[in-house]
Amino acid sequence: MKFITLVAALLVSAAAVSAAAIPVHVKDAVALQEEQIQPQNPAGEPAPTSFKSYIVVFKSTVAAQSIEKIEREVSFLGGRIVHRYNTVLKGFSAYIPGSVVSALKTNPAIDYIEEDGTVSAL
């Protein structure tokens, strides 16, 4: 758990440092790259209780088409993509059924999957 906290702190620090050094017009373009996804269920129903929120991070060498294919598969299997990450890392956050998480962990394109949660500094 301390390793995850350290990695999260480093990512936040790196993002803060790089954001301060980027011109405003570039920051706006980068912000447009990260897309907030609308829930798949138009009624706004909460995810089933058997679903948990996960962050899925891809290897840096994975093509965008491969990521999109995996996102479609997750949605098809009942998951709900909540947010895409494109700036500091390639990935997404989603509510995913446990059986789908198990299958994703065997995918060679995925670097790691973590259950989403609150991270705090020491």
TrEMBL record:
GO molecular function: endopeptidase inhibitor activity
Keywords, alphabetical: Signal
Protein name: Inhibitor I9 domain-containing protein
Domain Inhibitor I9 span(s) in chain numbering: 53-120
Gene Ontology biological process terms in this record: vacuole fusion, non-autophagic
Family: Belongs to the protease inhibitor I9 family.
Stored InterPro entries: PBI_I9, S8pro/Inhibitor_I9, S8pro/Inhibitor_I9_sf
Originating species: Lobosporangium transversale
Keyword Signal attached: yes
Keyword Signal found: yes
Transmembrane segments annotated in the record for this chain: none
Signal peptide annotation: 1-19
